[in-house]
Amino acid sequence: MADPTIATLMSLSRGIYPRLLADRGLVSALEVAVVNSPVPVTVISRDVGRYSSPVEAAAYFCCLEAVQNAAKHAGAATIRVELRAEPGSLVCVIDDDGAGFEPDAVSAGSGLANMRDRVESVGGRLGIATSGSGGARIQAWLPVEGS
Q1: Which CATH superfamily is domain 2-143 in?
Q2: Is residue 145 scored above 90 in pLDDT?
Q3: Which residues of 59-77 are buried (b: 16+ CB within 10 A; e: fewer)?
Q4: Of 40, 67, 73, 116, whose CB neighbour count within 10 A is largest?
């Protein structure tokens, strides 16, 4: 069961702009996308509204890529996705309780590069906090108008 779900998450993280994202927004689209994850995913939203299509797509695909990486590589038991509005930014924080990794020791695989490319394509920035002793935190700060 885990392999098909991971394959679905991978295809979504590289895929086409989902209709649910356009129709109902980031929070709803992420909740639906992770419902069958092999690792339980909690999605928490704090004052998140609607944003431009490029910003919502960058946030959506970055979050899915981080969830997929945690499910596939980290051996995580839980994953938490927090989305929150801050003045001028949409912030996405993805935490897992997996094995962690040393970012400098990881080859520039497509997962981290995809997240960075998505976030930077809208003028945002990506942060990675992790260690070999456990857990990882991926944070994306995406600039938004009027928040």
Answers
A1: Histidine kinase-like ATPase, C-terminal domain (3.30.565.10)
A2: no
A3: bbbbbbbbbbbbbbbbebe
A4: 67
Number of Cα atoms under 13 Å in the Cβ half of residue 87: 0
Is residue 105 scored above 90 in pLDDT? no
Tokens of 140: 């994306």
**Long-range contacts of the stretch 24-30 (C-beta < 8 A, 24+):** 25/49, 25/50, 25/56, 26/50, 26/51, 26/56, 26/59, 26/60, 26/83, 26/90, 27/83, 29/60, 30/60, 30/63, 30/64, 30/81, 30/83
pTM greater than 0.90 (yes/no): no
Single-letter amino acid, residue 90: L
Q: Helices 53-69 and 110-120 meet at what angle, rounded to 10?
A: 160
Cα–Cα distance, 2 to 8 (Å, whole number): 10
CB 21 within 8 A of CB 52: no
Domain ranges of the chain: 2-143
